[in-house]
Amino acid sequence: xxxxxxxxxxxxxxxxxxxxxxxxxxxxxxxxxxxxxxxxxxxxxxxxxxxxxxxxxxxxxxxxxxxxxxxxxxxxxxxxxxxxxxxxxxxxxxxxxxxxxxxxxxxxxxxxxxxxxxxxxxxxxxxxxxxxxxxxxxxxxxxxxxxxxxxxxxxxxxxxxxxxxxxxxxxxxxxxxxxxxxxxxxxxxxxxxxxxxxxxxxxxxxxxxxxxxxxxxxxxxxxxxxxxxxxxxxxxxxxxxxxxxxxxxxxxxxxxxxxxxxxxxxxxxxxxxxxxxxxxxxxxxxxx
Length: 288
Fold this sequence. Notes:
Elements lengths: L1 E5 L3 H14 L3 E5 L2 H4 L6 E5 L6 H7 L4 E6 L4 H10 L3 E4 L4 H32 L14 E5 L2 H15 L3 E5 L14 E5 L16 E6 L11 E5 L14 H12 L5 H8 L3 H11 L6
Parallel strand pairs: 1-2, 1-3, 3-4, 4-5, 6-9, 6-10, 7-8, 8-9
Protein name: Response regulatory domain-containing protein
InterPro entries: CheY-like_superfamily, Sig_transdc_resp-reg_receiver
């Protein structure tokens, strides 16, 4: 952990440095001005808000890092405005080193979770990017999605969660507790409804619940808002052999949104005119 202390009170800066080095095993640097500290590449900045120089530019240049303001007093210009610009928190002088350490550890944990969430979100988007499915408008719950392509339902649930900015909780109806269903502010994504029709808890009908079922599932609940999704693409199984025509149709449907017609026709070994004729023959609409 590398910490930069931007403070012109040398005694205070050295005291912070000694304590953080000892208690957090941190590598600390001390600078007396914003300009001097601008060259630092620290993980955490502890910044006196009452120094000469441009505090605004310093914060904007480091707002992706942890910034804790060391404020001699609380005003709009030295606390509220810097936090609006990207600083994370403040501590008012005089302060205890224990309180400063608590804030550092809390923000470090927050940034770790934030980065993990961003990483998982990007990975899920990558896994689902090839699934082309129309996201229903004006979603109501409980929602029943009938499809033989699970990833299509996954994408719908993921997009709903993004839009409403709430988490998703996976519920296996073969094995769960009603204690898992207490939170109203999340989506419950439920599997294995076919084997548990008689054991679905009533609370799921009052939550933001999405049930996944096969296309041939017979719905017996009037409460369900039902949608059926046809596979947006044919999925090639490992042991499946396609005819040439089936293969060409699959490639066009799957990859036409990735490549321009010139490149796609070249990869298929056909002319652009033949590609147009294939689309017309198979009833494939070119995606824009």
